[in-house]
Amino acid sequence: MATTQSPSPNSNDDKPQAVSAEVVQQANQVQQDVRPEATKQGVPASVFVNSEPIREDQVSNAVKFLSHPKVRGSPVIYRRSFLEKKGLTKEEIDEAFRRVPDPSPSSQPASLSQDGQANSLSSVQTQAPIQTPQPLPAAPTGIVSSGRVARRQFQWYHAVSAVGLLAASGCGTALLIKKVIIPKLKLWVRKVVLEEDNVYAKKIDAKPSLAEEAAAAAKAAAAAASDVAKASQEMLNSKNEERRRFEEFMNLMDAQVQEMKSMSNSIRKLEGQANSSGRAFSDHDDHRASASSTKQSYANGNVDLNVQPGRTSTLPASAEPPHPKSFMEKMEMIQRGEKPSNIREVNDMPPNPNQQLSNPRITPRTKPWEAQNGPRQVLQSQTSAEGLNQNGVDSGLNYLVDDESSTPWWQRKNVRITEIENEDEVKAAGSYGVKTNEQPSVQRTWVPPQPPPVAMPEAAEAIRRPKSAPKETAMQEQLADEQSAARPSEVTDELQRITKMFSTAGKLNKVSSYQVALKVFKTRDTFYLRVRTFQHDFVPRDPKAKPKKLKYPQFYDPYGPRPPPSDKIVELADCISALSPEERGQIGPTLMERLRHPKMQTITVEGMELGSQGGAGAGAAKTEEKKEKTTFDVKLEKFDAAAKIKVIKEVRAFTNLGLKEAKDLVEKAPVMLKQGVTKEEASDIMERIKATGGVAVME
Amino acid sequence: MPVFKTPFNGYSVRFSPFYESRLAVATAQNFGILGNGRVHVIDLAPTGPVINELIAFDTADGVYDVAWSESHDSVLVAAVADGSIKVYDTALPPQSNPVRSLKEHAREVHGLDYNPTRRDSFLSASWDDSVKLWTLDRPASLRTFREHAYCVYSVAWNPKHADVFASASGDCTVRIWDVREPGSTMIIPGHEHEILSCDWNKYDECLIATASVDKSIKIWDVRNYRVPVSVLNGHGYAVRKIKFSPHRRNLLVSCSYDMTVCLWDFMVEDALVGRYDHHTEFAVGVDLSVLVDGLMASTGWDELVYVWQQGMDPRAS
C-alpha cells in the first residue's frame, strides 16, 4: 500500500500549502457563479434529484482538497460536509472520492524540484530565525515533514543537499550583510560623530548638517541593509505565503470570534448583567469558537471536536438577539450545576405500551391544495359530526348547538370573498364545524389568480379597516359605490356611445343594447371582484423603504414650456440676431426706454401686452435660438476640486436646484449652467463662479 | 383576539387538521434548557375570544415540537428533549396517556412532521444529526436518514409527493430525500449559517423555503437550486420557523427571534405583507390553519399563545 500510495502524495504535495487555499478560493468563485442549469432530458422521473452533469473543475478541486494530508486525517463526514457546502453535488463528491488515490503521472517530475524547494524553504526557515523576528509556524514544517516522509529516499538526500547549499548561501549573505556592513556603518557613524566632537569649534551650522547628513546616511544605509535582509527573507518565504494565507483565514476567524466575544461581553455589561454574565456567554462563545475551530481542525486534520449542539445552538454567529433576563439567569444556574427549583419528577412513560389507539372518528379532510372533490367529503363529515357530539372529551364541538347564526369569531375576516360565502353557508347548513364551508373555499383557492396592482388606493384604504361580517357587505357596497363614482364617466360614455351606435344604426334593438350594457356592467363587476379578492389587509409602510427619488430635467428651464412663437416674433428675432454685438447690446436699454415711454404707457393694455409680448418674445427668442447672441448661456468649464463645494453653492444660488442636482450638474462639467440670461446676468454669474474658483464661459 | 397563557415557555404550536378550533402547543420549562415539558391541547371557544384548554400532558423533559396525526383525529405526537417521541390520544382517558414512547434518538428531537398525503407516517428531526421515519403502529423506526453533519432542526414532507421530504440542518444545508432511496437526493447549500426551518410550497411542489440564522428566508426551486428564487430580508434576528400558507400560493409566514411574526408574499417586489409585533420574547412557533383561511397562531418564550385572523391585530380584544 505504501508503494502504491507514494506516487499520489508526491504529485499532490507539489504545493501542499497552495492547494487548500486554492481550493478554497476556486470553490468560492465557482460557488458564486450563476450557473445555467443544464437542460433536463425529460427522462428523470423525479424532480428532486440533481440533474446537472458532473462538473470536472469542481471534481478536480475536490480531489486536490481530499488529497491534502491534513484533510485525509479528518473523518469522512466532515470532508463530505465541507464539499457539500461548497456546492458540489453528490455525484461530484462521490466521483472525487473515487478519484483520490489516482493522481496524474505527468506532474511527477515537476514535483521533484518543487519538493526540493519546499524542503529548502523549510530548512532555511529553521536555520535562520535570527534574521528576522518572524515567528516560525509549526504547521508548515509539520506538513513538509509529513510530506517528506512519504517521498522517495533518493529524492530526500537530493533535497537535503540542495537545501543545505541554498541555506548556506542564504545564511552567508545575510550574515555577511548584518555582521560586516552594519558594524562598518556603525564605525563610520562613530567616526563621524567623533570628528564632529573634535571640530566642534568650527562652523556649527555645517557640523550639524554634516552630522545630520551622516546620521541620515547611516540610517539610510541601515535601512537599506535591513531591507536587503528582509528582501532575502521574503524571497525565502515566498513559497510559504499561500499556505500561510490559508491559516490567516483561520486566524481571522479566530479574531472574529474574539471580537464577538468582546462585543457580546460589552453588550452584556450594558444590559446591567454583572460578573455572572461572562460565564453564560462564554458558553455560547465557546460553542461558536468550537464551531470555528471545527473548521480549522477540519483543515488540519484534527478530530477532536468538542462542539456541543446544546440548547443554545441556534444562536447566530453574528449579532446575538437579546435573550430574556431570566434566560440568562437560568443558564448561569445550570452552568453552576444547580437545578432550577421548579423541576418535578415526571413519569411520562406510557402506562400501557400496547395500548390501542382509539378509532378515528373523522375521515381525513382533503387539503386545500389537493382538493379535487369537495362535496364528497362534506357529506361524510357531516354524518360523522353527529357522532362527535356525543363524545364528552371532545367538547369542542358542543358549540354546534349554541351558535347557528353567526360565524365563529375566528372565521371573521376583513375582506375576503369567503366572508360572504361563509355567511351563506352558515345560514344554510346551520353547522359550521364540519366542512360545509370548505367547498367554496376549496373552489376559490383552486386557482388563485395574480393580484392586480392596487389601482384604487382609496379602495385599498377602505379595505384596510378591519370590519366584521355584517358591516362587510355594507362596505362592499360602499366600495362598489366608490368605484362607480370614480368611473362613471367611462361607463356612461361607453353606454352613450353604444346607445348612439345603435340609434344611429337605425335598429334600436333593445335586446342587443341591453346585452351590451350588461356586458359593460359585468366587466365592472368582475373588476370589483378582482379588487375584492386581492386586497392586502394590512400593508404597512415599509420603514426601510428608501424615499422615492424624483427625476429632475436635465436643464433648468425657469420659463417652463411655452407655445411656439408666432411668425412675427420669429422675424423680429431674425433681425435682432443679424445685428452686430454692439448693436445687440443697445437693444436692451432702448427697449426698456421704449417700454417705459410715456406714450406707450398710456395705452396700458397695449403696453402691458407689448411688454408681455416683448418679454414672451424675448423669452421665445431665447428658447428658440439658445445659441444666438441675443441671449447668453453660462457654461461651467471646469472648477477647482477644492472649490467644488463653493461652486455647487453658487450654482444652487442662481439655478435654484437642489443640492444633489446641483452636485450632479457641477460634476458633469463642462456643462451648461444657465441659459437665456442677459449679458449682465451672465457676466455676473461668471464672476461669481470665478470667485469661487471655477471657470465659466459665456456663450 | 384570544390569548392563552402557558405555564412554561412555548416552543411550537400546530393547528389540528381535523378540528378548526383545535390547536396543540408544545412548551418547555426554563426556556427548554432543563426542566419539564407540557403539551397543551387547546380549543377556541366559538362564542367569544376565549381559549380553553382541553387537556395537558406533562413530560419529564421539555417538548420542542408537536404534530397532529393525519389519520387519527385525536392523536398527536410530541418531540421531547430527552430524545423520545411521545404519542398521545386525547380520546382516551388521561391516565392512559401517553400511548407510546418511542425512544431511539440519541439527542433532543427538535422537529416533527406528519405526512399529509399518505397520512400514515411521520418524521422526526433530531440533534443527533439524523432523521427518522416512524409509523404509529410500529414501536421502532422504519428508516433512519443519517447524512447531515450537524443538528437537524426541521423536516417537512412534500405536499404532493408522498415520498419526498426535506430536512434543514445546522450544517447550513437543506437535503431533499426520497424515502425509497438510501441517501439524500439533493443537497442545497442554502445559507452561510445554520438553517433553522424549511417548508414546501403547497401549490408548487418544487418550491421550498429555508429560514436561517442569517436573518433571511430564501425560496428555492429544486429544479434550479443554485440560485434562490427569492430572498426575503426583513427580520432583525434569526428566523426560527416558516410556514407556507395552505390557502395562498405565494404567502408564507415566519417567526423570528426579533419577536415578530411576518407575512411574506415572495412573488412581489416588496415582499413583506404584514408584521405582527405581539410577542415580548422570542417568537419560536407559528402555524397557519389548513381548515380556516387566514387563521394563524403563534407562540413564544413569553409563554403566550396568540390565535388571530390575518389582518387583525393579535392583541386586540
From TrEMBL, chain A:
Name this protein carries in UniProt: Peroxisomal membrane protein PEX14
Positions of the UniProt region annotated as Disordered: 1-42, 98-139, 269-325, 341-391, 464-490
Domain Peroxisomal membrane protein PEX14-like KPWE: 322-370
All residue ranges annotated as the Peroxisomal membrane protein PEX14 central plants domain in the record: 153-271
Chain intervals with Polar residues compositional bias: 1-11, 116-131, 269-279, 294-316, 374-391
Lineage: Eukaryota, Viridiplantae, Streptophyta, Embryophyta, Tracheophyta
Gene3D superfamilies xrefs: 3.30.1390.10, Winged helix-like DNA-binding domain superfamily/Winged helix DNA-binding domain
Peroxisome membrane anchor protein Pex14p N-terminal domain boundaries: 55-99
UniProtKB/TrEMBL annotation, chain B:
Ranges occupied by WD repeats: 102-144, 145-187, 188-230, 232-265
Domain of life: Eukaryota
Stretches assigned to the EIPR1-like beta-propeller domain: 156-264
Protein keywords: Cytoplasm, Peroxisome, Protein transport, Repeat, Transport, WD repeat
SUPFAM superfamilies from the UniProt entry: WD40 repeat-like
Chief place where the protein resides: cytoplasm
Location within or outside the cell: Cytoplasm, Cytosol; Peroxisome matrix
Pfam entry (one): WD40
InterPro entries: Beta-prop_EIPR1-like, PEX7, WD40/YVTN_repeat-like_dom_sf, WD40_PAC1, WD40_repeat_CS, WD40_repeat_dom_sf, WD40_rpt
Name the UniProt record assigns to this protein: Peroxin-7
